User: Fold these one by one.
Assistant:
Number 1:
Amino acid sequence: MDGTAVIPVPIREQSQIAEARRKAIQLASIASFSEQDSGRLAIVVTEAATNILRHGGGGEIVLDARSHDHGGEVNILALDSGPGMANVQDCLRDGVSTADSTGTGLGAIQRQSDHFDIYSKPNLGTAIVCGVRTAGYQQRPPFPGLEVGAVCLPRIGEAVSGDGWAARVTERGATLLLVCDGLGHGLGAAEAAEAARSEFLRSKERLPEPLLEGLHKALRGTRGAVVGVVRIEPNDRRVRFAGVGNISGFIRWRDGQTRTVSQNGVVGHNVAKVKEYEYAYGGDLLAVFHSDGLSTKWDIDSYPGLATRHPMMIAAVLYRDFKRVRDDNLIVVVKTSET
């Protein structure tokens, strides 16, 4: 059975570095870490949090633990809005520092991590996406022709998020994606989002319109949710979308871009006839879907080279800079390429 836990830790003062390390070690048990794996994780989180405070002037660590029958992993987002780095490769070398330090932090994070990625530009802060895995960990089979990354966190002060997402693959190789936001916050919103996830994963429907109609029936008796259902067909270079409420979607390809269209209403309460929209694309695809916990004012072209990075990095940077702190936050990024 899968297990998952996501914990954000603000890094504003020295004591929060130790707090991030303690939280990481707690999550190591969920991921079935050995003592050696736990030790590597502690080094990564300590060095990342120290860098955030020392070089970025403060920021946030997000810890995401996952486990299944083939092992476990803890993924780490280390985010700051500090001065950034002009030359990342130089800063990865031990002994190179932009502050009065030994300059071993980034190198240690990279060495102790099983995967590591960094995005940093002058005046645009720094984002690190990395993770530690058990020795026998096997990644889940990928979505055909796609890479997917997501950030989903509760509003500050809430134990659970009212936002949620899920994905599954059809027998024809298309990927179906659910993005939902339960009304309000807290447990009631989380129950609505979980009801949507459960129905989406259980349903035999393969197209957004009938899937959304089924979700409308399944969410009766909950407080309701706003929902977007997406079908991505890499072989046919086509995206289908049906949405109700303020779930935002941005689709970009080689020669153009567009935003998805949603209907007014609340799934589980009041929905008019569901309408499905189809978007054809050519070449590489970048698609971003998010709840209203993320401002719509973002422009990926303001971040040089970010659109070429892994979806997890894109999601992390947009979350850092455009999250609404008084709301649950959900952003899902999908990329595909001609190859």
Number 2:
Amino acid sequence: MADIAFDAQKIAFAPISFQAALALRDLGILEFLNNTPADDKTIAKKLKLSLYAVQTLLEVGLGLDLVTLQNGVYNISKTGWFILCDPMTRVNMDFVNDVCYQGMYTLKDSLIKGKPTGLKVFGKWKTVYEGLSKLPKKNRTSWFAFDHFYSDIAFPAILPLVFELKPHTIFDIGGNTGKWAKKCLDHDPQVQVGIVDLPGQLAVAKKNLKKYKNRVSFHSVNLLDGKSVIPGGADAYLMSQFLDCFSKDEIVSILKKVKKAADKNARIYILEPLWDRQEYAASTFCLNHTSLYFTNIANGNSKMYSLGEMEECIKKAGLKTEKVFDGVGRFAYTLIRCTK
């Protein structure tokens, strides 16, 4: 019972714990201890912080298992090392702090209204995607770092799967800043790539892919506009971590547009980190929490989906699942290959 009560208190104080861990990282205390164990007075003097600040944070750090204490000397723990040095943990913490934290105060409103009420801390947009290019630099940097960290790791693993059928033209739907397009263009010097996205993202992609000239095309399409059309003529259509940005009804609508654009021999690829196909509990934990970012900040109605939910949308759109590739890349992505 004591352990259960302690777990409940961890949740009760979780927002404070998060900020304390961030302060231990950003004020240099964890880095200092990673280099050398020390007492609180030495840490305060070397980092030019008040003894009060150092003592208060270190005492919380003990409860969070970020530091250890023996004979008045503090040292960094294994968990503390992860907070300091692990790239994934750093990206996740920066994303939570810079993108999600302030807005999450209105999470209940988002759940009731089906709208991203937390987004108002940044601007008056219906979705975060409309305002990405206008976010303050720090917040925008953390958003893209989070997005690219996971997509960049998946790209090398899916390249051979997408190029297995030797496509001549690939359309990257929701291509963002063009990172997947660049991977394709470098992988096969003959392939043509088209990027479909909103104007703000395309402007960045054009700069990033300038050297590829006529091998890449850009198509401004608002996929939530009922009248919008996806260009045809591609051998492969890829949606990488894209459909989780939409509700189930919107996903079905988008897939129907892709179906209409694709010819009978084209392949449609959906890459997603599906929460029920993860090898590790920590991955599922992170994905399910990311769903609430979509609820409160991104759009108010999407989430990280399960395989069953995604296959249901595929079926409703009139597409067929040809093959499912599980465990793709370091973070166990699932690549679903579909046909008309």
